[in-house]
Amino acid sequence: MSEIILKVKDLRKIYDDKAVVNDISFEVKKGEIFGILGPNGAGKTTTLEMIETLREIDGGSITIDGIDVAREPNKVKGIIGVQPQTPAFQDKQKLSEIIEMFAAAYGVKVNAKELLDDVQLGDKINSYPENLSGGQRQRMSIAAALVHDPTVFFLDEPTTGLDPQARRNLWDLIRHVRDKGVTVIMTTHYLDEAELLCDRVAIMDSGKIIALDTPNNLIKQLLKRGFSKEQKVEQANLDDVFIDLTGKALRN
Amino acid sequence: MNIKQQLRTVLIFTKLSTRRFFRDRLAQFFGILFPLIFLVVFGSLNSGSNNVSFNVAVLNESNTEFSKTLVKQLKDGKVFKVDKQATTLAKAKDKMSKNQIDGIIVLPKDFGALKPGQSYPSGQAQILYNQSSSGTGQTLTSVLEGNFKQLNARSGVPAPPFSVAGKQLNENSLSAFDYTFAGLLGFSIVGLGIFGPINVFPELKKQGILRRLRTTPIKTWQYFLATMFSQAATGLISIAIQFAVAIQFFHLHVAGNYFEIILFTIFSIFMILGIGLAIGGWAKNERQAAPLGNIIVFPMLFLSGTFFPRFLMPEWLQNVSMFLPLTPVIDGLRLLTTEGKHLVDIAPQLGLVGLWMIVIYAVAFRVFKWE
Fold first, then answer.
1. What is the average per-residue pLDDT within B118-128?
2. Contact A64, A76 (CB under 8 A)
3. Do B112 and B254 share a domain, yes or no?
4. If B218 and its partner were Cys, which of A2, A105, A152, B247 is the partner (CB 3.0–4.6 Å)?
C-alpha cells in the first residue's frame, strides 16, 4: 500500500517574476485520496496543471509511476485522468458519443453504457450535455476521464457549486473510483469534504506547502499546540439538519 | 499508439463531428443556406444577361403600312425594349435625360412611303441619343442599320459592294453566370473553411474543451486531419446542393467530369480550411479571431473573383491577385466545371493550391494553441 505513485520534487512555477509555486515537494501513495487545500491563489490549480502536463515546469521535477512528466508528457497523458474545474463538453453530442470520442483520443475501445451506468448516467446515454444538471455534468466528466483506466485521477474542485445531495453523491463516487485501485488527487475549498474524504491532505499558501499529513494528525497537532475552541455540546450541525430534512436522494 | 490506432482516432473524431453538423442548425445555415442565398441572388441578377437589350422610345410619325409593321417588329423583337409611356418627343427626351431609356428612334412622316419613280418603300430613321451615352447610341445605330440591311435585301435592292457580316459563335461560350458560379463555390468554401473555425475555435477555447482534449494523448495533426475530413464531407454536401440548384434553376451547363470536380473541391477545401485553422487556432478569443479573419478574408474574396470576374480588374491588380490562395480555387473550379477542362489541364492551379497548402499548414501547426 505504501508504494509511491506520484513524486513531486522542488516544483516551481514563475509568473511575472513571482513564484506562484515555490519549491514544493510531496509524494502521493498508490491507492490513496490525496487532497490539496488552500485559499484562492495559493497555487493549487497551477500545481495540478503542471502535474497534468498542461503547464510548463519552470523548476524541479515530477514523476508519475516512474515517468518523468517534463520528458515524456505523452506517456503521462496515457495514464492520468483529468477532471477540469468546470467540465465543458461540446453541445449537440450525445453522452455516448462524448465517451466514444474520449476513448478514441486515448486509443481505446469502451462500452459507453457500462461507463455511464457506473456514474448513474446510464439513462441519459442519448442526452446532450447541455441538458444535464451541474452534478450530472461532474459525473459525466468523471466518466469521460476514466475511459482509459488511468492510474492517477485528478479532480480540480469537483464539488464547487453543487447542492448538498450532489456533493455527497460525488463523494461516494470518488470513493468508488478509489476502491477500484485508482489513486485520486483533488483540490477543494471545503474542509469538511477534505476531512471526510481524504486520506492525507497538503495545505498550500502563497505557493508553499505549509502542512502535510492525515486530517486526524493535523487536528491532533493543533490541539497539542494548546488550541481550544468553544465547546459545543450539540452532536449535530446545520448540515446534518439539512440532510435529515431533505434526504440524501439526488435531485433532478 | 501505432499509426493505425492513431488513424482510427482520426476517423472516429471525423465521424462524430460530421454527425454533429447535422444537428447544428447554425452551422447548417452558414454552411449550406447562406451560400445558397447568394447563389439565388447572383443567379437571378445574371440570368438573361446573354441577350443585350436596349430600352428605346419609338416615335412613329408616319402613317404607312410599312412603318407600322416595322414598329411592331421592334416591339416584338428581343433586342429592343420599347418604352410604352414615351409617346411624344418631349416625354422621351425627359426619360432619356434620366437615363431610363438609351435612345429614341424617330420614323419621320414620309418613312416607308413610295417615292415617285421607285418600286420599293424607302426612308431614313433617326436615332437620338445623349452625349453621355454616345457608345450606346452608336451601337443602337448599327443594330438598327443591320435590321434595315435585311429589309433592303428583301426589297430586291442590289446589295452594296462591300459589307461586314458578324457571326455569333455559341460553342462553349461562358456566360456571366458561369463566372459567378465558380466564384460562389469559392465563397462557400471560404464560408465553411474560414468563418467556421474562426467562430468555433475561440468558443471551444473559452469553454476549455480544447484544453480538456490536450490532457489526452491526441496529437495536433490528428485533430487537424479529423477537422479536414469532416469539413470536406460537409463542404461537398453544400457544394452538391449548389450544383443541383444551379443546374435546375439557372441552366448551368456542366461540361466537366464530376469526379475531377469532387477531387479538386476536396483539395481546395483542405487548403482553405488551413487558413481558418491557423487564425482560429492562433487566436486566444473571438476579439482576436474576428478582426484578423476579416482582414484576410474580405480582400481575398473581392480580389480572387468571388463576386465579379477578375478580368474586369486593371492588369496590375490581376497580376497580384492571381497568386492569392482563393484565385486558383475559383479558376480551377470554373475551368473544370464550365470549360470542360481536366485535372491535367489545370496543373498551374493545382500547383498553386498545393503550394499554399504547404505554407498555410506550416503556419497553422506552428501557431495552434489548445487554450
1. 80
2. yes
3. no
4. A105
